[in-house]
Amino acid sequence: MAVFGCAGCGAALTVAVSRVVRPVHLADSHWEMLHPPLLEAGTYAVDHERFGAPWRTWEEVGAAEAAARGYFVEFWGNLSDGPPDTLLFAPGDLPGTALIPERNEGHCLGIDGSGGPNLACLDCGRPVGWRIDDCGQWQVARLLPEAVRLPGPPERPVMGWAELTAEGALWPGLGEYRHIPAGVALAHAVVATGGGPVVAAPGPVAGLFGRALAALLPAGTGATRLDLAGPGLGEPDAELVLMPVHPQTGEVWRPGGGAVPVPVEAALWAELAFPAHRTRLPAVGGLPPGVERDDPLPPHPPARPSGNAYRYTVARLPVGREPWLRALHARWH
Predict the structure, then answer these.
(1) Cα(250)–Cα(193) distance, rounded to whole angstroms?
(2) In terms of Cα–Cα distance, which of 50, 18, 38 is closest to 180?
(3) Domain at 2-48+85-149, CATH class
(4) Other CB atoms within 10 Å distance of the CB of residue 322
(5) Of all residues in the chain, what percent are helix, strand and coil, respectively (each to 5)?
(6) d(Cα 44, Cα 145) in Å, to the nearest integer?
(7) Helices (H), the chain
(8) What would the pLDDT profile of 38-96 be if each residue is shown by its tens digit?
(9) What is the predicted pLDDT for the residue at 280?
(10) For the chain, what percent of residues have pLDDT higher than 70?
């Protein structure tokens, strides 16, 4: 177990089992919709991006500073000038904290932390972070890095790819929001093509990315092929291959051949690679007598990759400044 303590008094704020990569779902959200928790209980992640007030316009920041922060194309409204490297937790994983009553600002149905840190240490009252659950935002708790006494490495070792696939560890998460990691993967796929034509392999890959790629990239002869590869799959005859990102380390599974890897969030990759594993059985009991159905249920219909996640990802890549890619920047809505 990794115990995070208050830097002011040393009191325990939370216990986390495992560090995971920053969820790609932060690339998009849905306005005026209640969102589920961003992270699973017992996990935490580090968000290197700045968070919260004060805010500065792109003109105030300037292109050089924006690039130093990892923004190469203007995207969204203003840039945060808040602290970087906040620690992300599931909302219920901070029993050592309490809300600060006078900082419960929110836009609509919850609190958003717009008035500053709204969580305090229960023992000493020192502000330590934010609790966010307003509509249009992922439910998450953030801790200020300077307010927290960091532990040593978590006890849980990094899982190998064979262990991840064998234990089904790639399947949990935010499956109903898979259009967001799909938008992120779409951006990486488009960048990997260099602006040339590409054809998606028939099946799940074409079902998820085919229409978007056709809308963004030109048609023509000599198209590169986009297919799936990774642990448990053979390597296809394709120039571009969708590869899973390790949920703990952020490393991309690498092909043995010369194909160009396109990173994909692990749970989405698993859904594409092993669609037969996506079963939904009743939690208790069974179906009424005489009711029949397919078992397992058919996969969800293909999601349309998120346009916001696509543009956000392109804006974070240096190649996003290339003229051919800037011309595509707003095409996928």
Answers:
(1) 22
(2) 38
(3) mainly beta
(4) 16
(5) 25, 20, 55
(6) 13
(7) 58-68, 161-166, 179-193, 204-216, 266-273, 307-315, 323-328
(8) 999 988 999 999 999 899 999 999 999 999 999 999 887 899 999 999 999 999 999 99
(9) 39
(10) 87
